Amino acid sequence: MTNPSERSPWLPPEAELSEKFVLAGGPGGQHVNRTESAVQLRFDAANSDFLSEPVRQRLIRLAGQRADNQGVILIEARSHRSQHRNREDARQRLAKLIEQAHRKPRKRIPTKPSRSAKKKRLEGKRQRSRIKQARGKPGLSD
């Protein structure tokens, strides 16, 4: 578990985060039905001053289903029994997502297959064709 003083540099300011605690199923006996140990962490990425525009777009794209149409990212954590550990887990997952969004994707440089690679691929196709043709029904002469 992380210490609150060891706050991730990728985590947005507290004012931009909102948390809601909800009931979580799973192990824990009767206690699980009474405590709100699961956390729903919301971060409004679309209106955040913490992110630059390219990072914001990458973050919303990376979030996928976790982001709604308004650009609000919802992260649910319910794997631990304690509210505190679920809260830390949700914050770490958000920080990891933001860190990934800060990395610029590499530009793909298209390449062409070599002449020998083309030749090898076509020879493989011919060989496969011969094998399949040999599987045909026997003719009158067979």
Describe the structure.
With 142 residues, this protein is of the alpha+beta class. It has a domain at 14-102: Double Stranded RNA Binding Domain, CATH 3.30.160.20. The protein has three helices and three strands, in the order ββαβαα. It has helices at residues 53-63, 83-102, 115-133; strands at residues 17-22, 38-44, 72-77. A three-stranded antiparallel sheet has the order 1-2-3, covered by helices on one side. Helix 1 packs across helix 2 (83-102). The longest helix is centred in the middle third of the chain and has 20 residues, at 83-102.
- What is the strand arrangement across the widest sheet? 1-2-3
Helix content: 25-40%
Based on secondary structure, the structural category is: alpha+beta
How is the quaternary structure best described?
single chain
In brief, what are we looking at here?
The protein is an alpha+beta fold and 142 residues long. It is 35% helix and 13% strand.
